[in-house]
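Milestone 3.1: sequence recovery, worked example.
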């Protein structure tokens, strides 16, 4: 049995949804809707149409294609801008402010001037509490018994 393809109207509806229209607006765009048709009827029909596996799969596919195109365009634009900046930086006169600005923008694009540092600490509060208790215990032992072996002390307490 051959797989049913989308009708032209279903395909138009899918394109409308993938393009950002609401389901009701997409339905009105793709299908003939009389003035006497209620909003509830349009909403219900659009919802049923979107629930169709083939229609919803086509919408997801079209959205995926659009996202790929946006990413490809952004990468191309970024490469183009960086290429221009490198050219201006290399070709400008040594005293030229364009050269300095191009170098600055290149540095910013490479995140060389980042002032925010992210520290990823995988310890939880229980581990931290245990470490603090161990350090306090070691400090107390050292204070009470100065002859205690320094090899037993954690390095950061020496």
């Amino acid at each position: 049995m051959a797989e049913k393809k989308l009708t032209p109207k279903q395909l138009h509806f899918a394109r409308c949804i993938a393009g950002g229209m609401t389901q009701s607006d997409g339905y009105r765009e793709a299908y003939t809707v009389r003035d006497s048709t209620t909003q509830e009827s349009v909403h219900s029909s659009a919802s049923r149409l979107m629930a169709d596996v083939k229609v919803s799969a086509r919408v997801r596919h079209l959205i995926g294609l659009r996202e790929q195109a946006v990413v490809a365009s952004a990468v191309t634009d970024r490469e183009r801008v960086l290429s221009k900046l490198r050219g201006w930086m290399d070709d400008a006169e040594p005293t030229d402010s364009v050269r300095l600005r191009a170098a600055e923008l290149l540095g910013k694009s490479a995140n060389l001037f980042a002032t925010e540092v992210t520290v990823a600490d995988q310890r939880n509060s229980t581990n931290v509490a245990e470490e603090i208790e161990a350090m306090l215990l070691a400090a107390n032992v050292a204070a009470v018994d100065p002859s205690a072996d320094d090899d037993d002390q954690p390095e950061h307490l020496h």
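The first helix runs from residue 8 to 18. The chain has a mean pLDDT of 80.
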